[in-house]
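lol ok so funny story. i was supposed to be doing the assay writeup but got distracted and ended up predicting the structure for this chain instead. priorities right. anyway since i did it might as well share w the group, maybe its usefull for someone
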Amino acid sequence: MNRSKLVLHILTIGIVLGIMGDTLLRVGPWAFNLTLWIATVLAVALVLVAYHRVAWPRGMVWLALPVMVFALGYTWRDSPGLKTLDLLAILVGFSIWALSLEGVRLRSWGILDYLRGMTSSGLAALAGVAVLERSDIAWPTTPRSAALRHARSAVVGLLIAFPLLFIFGGLLMAADAVFEDFVTRALDFDFATILSHAALSAFFTWIVCGYLFLILKARKPLLADSLKVDRPGLGLVEIALPLALIDLLFLTFVVVQLRYLFGDAALVQETVGLSYAEYARRGFFELVTVAALVLPLLLLADWVLLNTERRSRHIFRALAGVQLLLLFVIMISALQRMNLYVDAYGLTELRLYSSALMIWLGIVFAWFAATVLRSRREHFTLGAVASGFLAILALNFLNPDALIARVNVERARAGYEFDALYATSLSADAVPRLVAALPDLGQEDRCLAATRILERWMPPAEADWRTWNRARSKAWRAVEGATTDLSVACPAQPKTTPRRGTSPPS
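and the output, tada:
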């Protein structure tokens, strides 16, 4: 592989992708434009690998698939929360792609390895072309042909002439008003717009070049081959005692939950003075936090006792197993709380995504028990990351905003209060469902929902192809097909004739 030629190709392609990034991504909201740009970056990387015969590990190409799948999510769905998760998955996917170049099998990576991969990718994007050394590009000392010599001389001449023209031109313009008017009309450019395009193109060029240097081995790694942390000098007692006390705390909580949350509403009202729904709402997010904190705690404890004697490992596994069983009961309690909460107040994005997080944590804990507690710690991280990817993919298929609209409309049909203002603040994913449900809403809610839908989702006169999105396209079609019904959803206020001797209200 010709290192100098590879680096020159990366620089050239980086500039092209930077200009493409400015052209596509300077308009929002990001949709097809981001999908197209990510696909182009992936394709260019693979072409460079094939052309320069870069030695990549087996199966490396397939690691680009998750990145492309979640990039397609921007063209598929419109929910901002879902797009945030898709972007997170894209960044993690790019990081895994970079880390796998070291030839280490995915299943043997640990959490620190993934953190290192993500940090390396981020630093590479920040460093950009600054990571190049003079030795990376073998610039020819003397041009080989007369044409190249003349071209180089012309470039040098222009670089010298530009500041001189700027100085003398400014003086002449100050000296003569007619000449100043002539130059001003001749150079009638929007310099702010030009500067904006140049800055955005330079930004995308910088990060693309930095990442391509990383994955194509055009520079030295920014981090050491591995992040090694010395284990603290803690033994079984220092680890087992806190775990046992936490187990006792969890057991106490579970006993209380079995009596109150899984009991009856009258008991809760009598004991703490809260309605059943208020009682449920108060604790769900705290329980999500508890579940999220247990995982790093158990992983840290397992790491500290990794090389200890078998007896210590058995005691740890017993305590961790009890803690996981109790935690599963607590998580079921949290989901029961959320179910009561939704029954009373309806479904929102925060409630849905928090529930999804709890379900994903349950899967991760089950995987922890199947791997770490069975002395297969090296398999845990890959499974946890893969389950995260699958969870985000499942949310894309689930279509959260449409689900929220459907649940809240069903509640309205059952006689519960409907929050039309919140429902119409959802993304385009929810619009077809809301348009179809308008006849089932009360007069006031129907009027507010129709007005808001017409304000936000009337088809534009001209749509930018860069921001095309399947969900928004469906929303526009739904609104266009129901424009008449939406327009008459609010009945006209009857006109009143003022009585003689009075004036109409202002």
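The CA atoms of residues 358 and 382 lie 19 Å apart. The mean pLDDT is 81.
back to the writeup now i swear
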